[in-house]
Amino acid sequence: MILDKVGDDAAFRAALRAWLGTVLQAPEARPTPGDSRSFYESQKWWMAERHKVGLGTPHWPSAYGGADLGLRDQIIIAEEVARARAPTLGLFTVSLNHLPHTLLKWGTEAQRATYLPGVTRDGVMWCQGFSEPGAGSDLAALRTRAVRDGDVYVVNGQKIWSSYSMYAEYCILLTRTDPDAAKHGGITFLILDMNTPGVEVRPLRQANGMAKFAEIFLTDVRIPVENRVGDENNGWAVAQTTLASERGVLSFERNERLRYHMEDFHAEALRRDAPWLRDDELRREFMRLFMEMQGCRRLMRRLLRQTEAGSPAASSTVPYVKLINTELRKSAGEFMVRANGIDALDYVPGFDELSLDPMFTYMTALGGTIAGGSNEIMRNLIAERILGMPRG
Amino acid sequence: MVQFKFRSVYRHSRWGAHGASLRLTTVRGWATVGAGATRWYTAGMVEMDAASWEEDLVALSEGISDVLEAECDRRAVHAFFDGQNDLDQQLWARAAELGWLGLGLPEDYGGLGLGAPGLDVLYRALGAALAPGAFIPTLAVAQWLSGTAADSVKEEVLPQVATGALTLAAPASLEAEPLPVGDGLLRGVSQPMLGTSRAALAIAPVRVDGRNGFAVVRLDGARAKFEAADTWDRTRSIGRIVYDRAEPLALLADADGALNSSLRSNLALAVAGDSVGGARAIAEQTIAYMKERVQFGRPIASFQALKHRAADLMVAVIQGEQALDQAVAAAADGEPNAAMWASLAKVAAAEHFRFVADDCVQLHGGVGFTWEFDCHIFLKRALLNRELAGSAGALRDLAATYLAAASRAGRTTAELTT
Q1: Consecutive H or E run containing A124
Q2: Could you report the per-residue pLDDT of B100-111, keeping only the tens digit for each?
Q3: B190 touches chain A (CB under 8 A)
Q4: Nearest Cα residue to A330 out of A254, A225, A275
Q5: B400, A390: Cβ pair inside 8 Å?
Q6: B-chain residues within 8 Å CB-CB of A378?
Q7: Does the pTM of the predicted model rise above 0.90?
Q8: What is the pLDDT of residues A43-89, one digit of tens each?
Q9: How far is A15 from A97, CA to CA, in rounded Å?
């Protein structure tokens, strides 16, 4: 067992490498580019393979099917997974992080017992229904209405940018229960079974060609009151917990992948003696980005150390990490497109972070500076909460 | 955990009343580092808790900054800039007294053995304070000699550096051709040198019988004379040395270029430290100013356009700092890629410093453009730093050759151990 080696870093790494070396031989590890179904199957397969060796939800508490793995060991897993160029667990982002984070703090024991084992046992897929067409950066302006009717809430409204919601079995949903309360005051957090009548999901195609997110239309959808997380009208506080779980090991792993992507891109250029290596401007720009990449990795590690130590400094590092990391991925993607010249503009379908095509990488990175709190919101946070500049 | 190499067996260092005096005493075994933290250090490789090592460096940094705040304040710097005081001399004497000049040097030569991480703390603090003087050429060259020169050279030079008895002049950019030396004597005019007319020794890249190396030359004012230029950045000085049959004190052969690379790395780390210290200082000062400055009936810090500018300043500051952290860690660990990271970090730190200092002029408005205000001094230091130890293009090209060599050898340069 791989997890038996926890505590002995070298042995743990060796066990991870051995397992990754074998399991990634399977054809499912490389889905057909541009084929959403193949991508979905690959993700389900990968989650199942990780479960088999205890690496599905190792960071969860053991009481709910996890292995109580600390941050340090989660980092080792992320490093080794990235190093092996293994698939991401993008499809399960909400299942693995947002859901447990939220339920462990705000959920009832019954809710935890009902929903958490589904993820650890069967890889049940969850999505997040927060953003709306009129509530993006201004999330608290959301208008999806939930009206109490006996033991149920009747929900009407529309959600958008909900990643992988076309595959999801459940959704964590923000609704407005009191339209007369102050903006942040009338929001309630609900759990929605996506098979409930009145739920319609329409995939949206992204700039990178993949349909990764979708719109969710809700028409007279009846959600049992027992599916409420936290008190009625206290959903904003619950949502803050959910959103805080987006950071950390997830973006750490993505950043590690960027390291290998850049190293591979450079090694490949050397192998085929790419013209950009002899172009002073391009070669020097690559070296600038390479330095930025390494600096970003250090910053990310600092954040994880602060988080592990429970340091209040962590919250002051988060927006910087988000800004630097997402801008860097965009710059690196754009650089690779330019370095490869007109050939880079031939359409090559991709599939999530595993695709190394420069244009696909760049197009995917465009989403990073928008999602998870746009970089403009991050700049506001830095200015107001960290630098103490007054609100306008 | 980090492993930190102490070159000496036992040591005792003490933070004095100012919080920044470092004195070696004869007490063996216990090292009191920072306020009240006492630990036992053993010989050779010492396993230290990473957090406490970082805390020690933070304590050291705060101690140095306290002294600089009191003795190298902005009023004094401006007066020095206008030739109205000898702040550089006062500061040098104070630095010698407090042990700063030997921070990175081995204890056998009167230093404190803190290596690259200790020096880094000092460079950053000096940069933040706009400190005048020959700190960079003297300390970077001494550090370089401590790792490369023969014992006789080290014995001659290093203790005098640690006590503040002499300063050094070093090639400013290391990009010019080495000086050809025929009959063992140096003649002609040197490449641009970083140092002052008070420098006692110069390091001259030379070519002797077709072989590259470095000469250590005494600047006696006759056979070898430092002629300072009038530079825009008056806190440091650039000059050329005129050699008239100067006989070197020592010649260091550099057949494989390793000495050159190592000198460049030591200078690069110094300039990068100065840059990130300067960038953070002027950025924080500017943001504080924006909270005070009222226009249209509100502090200009409340305008979103300027908030985003301020955030971008801090992003640049942090990116420079992270780049340098990488280079210092690589140097401290003796990584094979340390020279690559030093080059890249220097360019990143200096470019970010230039960006920050430039924008801080604009964010200050009219006063930012005046001679009386601090902004232009930071900007002028940034512009000099951009050229020191090598230009952006030269250093990135150098780094590209390191990276290509590592990649061809199947070696990664990006492993992080801490």
Answers
A1: none
A2: 999 999 999 999
A3: no
A4: A254
A5: no
A6: 311
A7: yes
A8: 999 999 999 999 999 999 999 989 999 988 999 999 999 999 999 99
A9: 25
